[in-house]
Amino acid sequence: MKKKTIAIDMDGVLADIEHQLIQHYNKANGTNLSKESIQGLEEEEAFVDRAVVRSVLNADNFFRSLPVMPDAVESVRELQENFEIFIVSAATEFPVSLAEKVAWLGEHFPFIKWENIILCGSKRIINTDYMIDDHCKNLDYCMGKPIMFTAFHNINKTHHLRVNNWKEVVAVLNETL
């Protein structure tokens, strides 16, 4: 029997981009944003200086040094037993991120085959049974079942099934077997 497929986003789902972006943004702007202070804000509201954001996201080693989300490695490995996993990241907007994301995945998720890594611009063409992402702009076009991973910018969104951490992801998807 063919395994069901899952598309998993990187930034904000596998990799903790919030913490690092806040640190870099505060350093560049002399601000004191925190995870708590940006809860419920859209990205553009939380990080008003978009030029600084673009500069940070285009900086060497930003994506390569992101911390892994708690329980992500073990959870993806467990899900891989019953699902075909694809890592899908909208990476082409920040070209420096392409090689860094591949290297990051190789270090933290070496069990994901290279052909299951999709670095793209738009996720509208992704056709998997499930998509785990933190952005509604990607989940709204999901051809399968969208699963929203909680992030500061989606905390007030309610139109997709929400998971707050990787243990919840595993529980939700194991229920589908």
TrEMBL record:
* Entry keyword annotation includes Hydrolase: yes
One Pfam family in the UniProt entry: NT5C
Keywords, comma-separated and alphabetical = Hydrolase
Q: GO terms for biological process?
A: pyrimidine deoxyribonucleotide catabolic process
Q: Which InterPro entries match?
A: 5'(3')-deoxyribonucleotidase, HAD-like_sf, HAD_sf
> Which is an annotated GO molecular function term of this record?
5'-nucleotidase activity
> Into which EC class is this enzyme placed?
hydrolase
Q: What is its EC number?
A: 3.1.3.-
Q: Which residues carry out catalysis? A: 9, 11
Determine the domain of life of the protein's source: Bacteria
The UniProt family comment states: Belongs to the 5'(3')-deoxyribonucleotidase family.
Protein name listed in UniProt = 5'(3')-deoxyribonucleotidase
Taxonomically, what lineage is the organism? Bacteria, Pseudomonadati, Bacteroidota, Flavobacteriia, Flavobacteriales
